[in-house]
User: Fold these one by one.
Assistant:
Number 1:
Amino acid sequence: MYDVAVIGAGIVGACTVYELSRLDISVCLIEKENDAAAGATKANSALVHAGFDPEEGTLMARFNVEGCSMFERLSKEAGFPYIRNGALVLAFSEEDLDTIGMLYKRGVANGVKGLRIIDREELLLLEPNLGAQVSGALLAPSAGIVGPWEMCMALIVKAANRGVSLRFRNTVTGIRKTTDFFEIEINGGESQVQAKRIVNAAGIHADEIMEMAGEKEFTILPRKGQYYVLDKSQGTLVSHTLFQCPSDRGKGVMVTPTVHGNLLVGPDSGPAEGKEDKATSREGLEVVKESALRSVESINFRDTIRNYAGLRAYSDRKDFIIEESASVRGLINLAGIKSPGLTAAPAIAWEALRLLESTGLHMAPRPEKNDPEVRAKYSEMNDEEKQAVIQENPAYGRVICRCEGITEGEIIESLKGPLGAVSQDGVKRRVRPGSGRCQGGFCGPKVIEIISRELNIKPWEVPLDLDGSYVLGGEEDGS
């Protein structure tokens, strides 16, 4: 029997269990996939938005600004990459300049600090590679970029070290409310979890979880966005995150550096053909490319190393859904978390705690214990520190991924702990082998070999990513 069961191990669920782990209660995290960050958290823009875009008075506006202010502290506490690089909303016409004025007023009303409207002359001092049509911009210095996978996993590991139970490969197939608690059916009756409260953070499946427990209170309507990831040769073209001025055609395509030195371009926006539709299209990517070249004409798309598509959890409401269910007392819905959901997630978690407390759940702080310190990552050590690590464990002296300089020791370490990787892409999300220019063409086979050896499974049993997605085929006799 848990005090709280959180369903969904994306960024909202991760932030929620992280904050719940500060309390003297029992908590479990339930996730249907084999790893965290497997949905929208895996494929998004990786941005920390300043908060000038959401309409004044909405939950999106409130939690965007509150969440943005929390990233610096959280990144230090949990040890994930975050850079406050600032954002620019570009204007290409007089109409755009009027829109920028409106965004400035909205941002001030939302509580965004440091906003300024700047002309082309000042703009080019900040970003000399901008296109010839750019006439001015809104500068938002509080905006930033983050590693969403690393953030999600770091928070969950911290929570697990504080006692949160992790239950992966646990698909919720039924929920029954008794007088005092919930019975959560797992994998069609294979097992059951009992909890006094539920936090529904199931992303694009949040409407299904709600309907299992009670009535159909909202519908999730996923929308798809497609992206380009460009090599680090393009990563220094811009230093700020560049947005295009919103228009009747949409918000436009962004161009941004990433925390790892690449350039990220996208997304477009369109309806998804179901909740598993993550396919890219030539037509959609061409729209992204043409739009991005308006902002920065010198982007060399021949240096593209990856395309991907992500799904956003739009709902049939205009705002975030952050509330106790109207039909089932004790079930807290954190749903419809579209952009700026990643930014808002830390603040949404605090609101989830407030909602849980309002249901009568006892929320005393857990007894004071010293959290394990965040270890310095090998890639961030100086040469002297690296030599000391190699002396202790020679595996850190064997480079496996040449593009990113990732060692065997780092890969082995990513497979251990309460949230160790179980797939090739799981290792990639933690320590980045296969994220460079060759996209695993060189290191991929060796990574599979290491996973096979360390997890004591056959090479053809190593998933590429989610269960059932294999890189190799084979039989027990090795054929």
Note: Residues 322 and 334 are 5 Å apart (CA to CA).
Number 2:
Amino acid sequence: MKLDFEKLNSVVGCGESVIPVVVQDADTKAVLILAYTNQVALEESIRTGYAVFWSTSRNELWEKGKTSGNRLALVSVRVNCEDNSLLYLVKPLGEGVCHTKDEWGRYRDTCYYRDYK
């Protein structure tokens, strides 16, 4: 395991004004992913009722689950006390959440499936 301590440098360098979004299962309260949003992605999420983010690596809107079918239905959008991050409470739809798969070829339920030791 090699942690990416340079990620925020690439986020800053993507050319978009973004804020982090913690995505949590509305029912189980499990943290599913951490992503980024800009104003357009946030408005699209609210308009469609599904989680849409800004891909800092591809520099484009990222409609979560558009290709995999693993969409995230938006239940609530919460903002932190400093107005610089969001919490999306969602209901996962489809087979999983993470873009990686387990040893049986199934999408994982969360991107946080490993312990750091």
Note: The radius of gyration is 14 Å.
Number 3:
Amino acid sequence: MNLNNSFTLYRYAFGPLDAATYLVSKQGAKKLEHYCQSLHTPIDILMDRSYDHGVPIYGVMPYAATTQFNFDEKDPLFTDVGVRDQKYAPDITTFEKLMVKYHRLCGSVKRHLATIRLNLVKE
């Protein structure tokens, strides 16, 4: 849906997994409140999982907000988000590594199924 000559509204199968701003309806907030009771991942990741909580996600293109990572440790706006020296913490067990892989696999399957469902609805 074209909003004007500069912006277009798109429905996502799941959150865009990058910088975003949020506008949530009261009905959506109630669903998210129930779903997000257990903060087992950061809140923005939980909000992106529309395939689990059922709140539809729309995005405006081009984005109204962008990420500007700053990896200069001397800069007051320094961030280490995304910077990793190793894949796992040194004290993580083999079982915990397997659980991480299992949850990533489940999320990947859910994202693919959500994409297929959204494409079927469009046609």
Note: The chain has a mean pLDDT of 84.
Number 4:
Amino acid sequence: MGLEIDNCTFSNRDFEQFRKELARETEWLQQAISSGNCSEKSPTAGFEIEAWLVDEQMKPAPLNSSFLKTLNDPLATPELAKFNIELNNSPLPLKGNVLQQLNRELESTWGNVIQTAESMGLSAVMIGILPTLEKSSLCLRNMSELNRFRALNEQILKQRNAPIHLDINGKEHLKLDHHDVMLESAATSFQVHMQVPLNRAHHFYNASIIASAPCVAISANSPFLFKHDLWDETRIPLFEQSIETGGYGGAARGPIRRVSFGTDYARKSIMECFEENLQHFPVLLPVHYASDIGELAHLRLHNGTIWRWNRPLIGFDQDSLPHIRIEHRIMAAGPTIIDSVANAAFFYGLTTAIEQQLANEVPRLTFAQAKDNFYLASKNGLDAHLSWDDGEHQRIQTLLLEKLLPLAREGLAILGINHSDAKNYLDIICERVESKQNGCQWQRHFIKQQNSNGFKEMVEAYLSHQKTEKPVHTWSLSKL
């Protein structure tokens, strides 16, 4: 979905032709995987960070086109809304001092973003949901001027044939109707990518599913939507409901949904995800590509319109062999670069350690338990109680400190990550868990201390702390 498309309107023949090409490419990929004609390179790391542009009143500033032109960085792209941008990094081998390298590159990129924003009288903010956001900003007038976004909006609404109904019951209850997909732009993410060896890709995929609950709990940074205090990570129900379309037969609320935790572990091959894409999801964007079948253009576009929280992606190495990477989509943007890299270090380490276990045994945690854990952690954050592989329900704080952080350290050692780097970044997670101050809790504590709806003041204080690059567990409840 990162590539622009040529048109926004499609005929029935377009859909029929696309589905034929999709079936051909799915079969080609199956044969390539069966024959081993795919990349088996060692794990590689990559990130995507989404961010907000805001004006002096800390309200969304729909100026990403002129901002990106001024920034002039090929790794920075527009998002769905004109007040959002996306920043990417250069993929690097997941070993040695990669965490330091990623941190330095992101700091440099983010520094340029801040300078460019300030030159335009704006600020840039990494936060899951902007607390000052108002529903009126989520309108088609503020949609980025790209065909793919217009077409996506049209096709999703056509499949739904009804307004989008948002109903989130958390600490408070928010219900509203919306008439386009712009609700989705209220949520910005830190997406972690991990390219993995093909013959173990299904184990890494399953491991990332199991790791999702602890990862969303430590990184929660989205309690407020339209001044309502909802889930610790409100992005999760927001995104699921803002693009709530299902599989064939219009089963929007059925077990097969375009935005979801998925339907099961991959049992024998990562190919099972792409077969499910073909069999259960109608085509949204039937763009015709005059490309070689081995480029998998139709398969990749279709996969880009199915938003599993852990999504397998197809890419290509320099030798044109297809590779698999796992896109872990559950973590919110922010609060800082160092917090983000620490979150990624935890994910890489924990997923790798769990993958090593899964290579030798079936998951002890059922898929249903992993799914329940995910939504409990999304709603309750570091106050959640989760089941784990021993079948017992445990406080997530205890589970993280006694079992999961040691597992993450073990996983980073398996990857060959520099020991002092692993310690430094995972110590940030440890201290965050011990203090129970992630981005979500800092926001809630700030509003409670203000004893008012001081969301503008909170974003100003958040920005002042973000610029220090000190991790969120050290932040005070005041503007610096």
Note: Residues 83 and 285 are 24 Å apart (CA to CA).
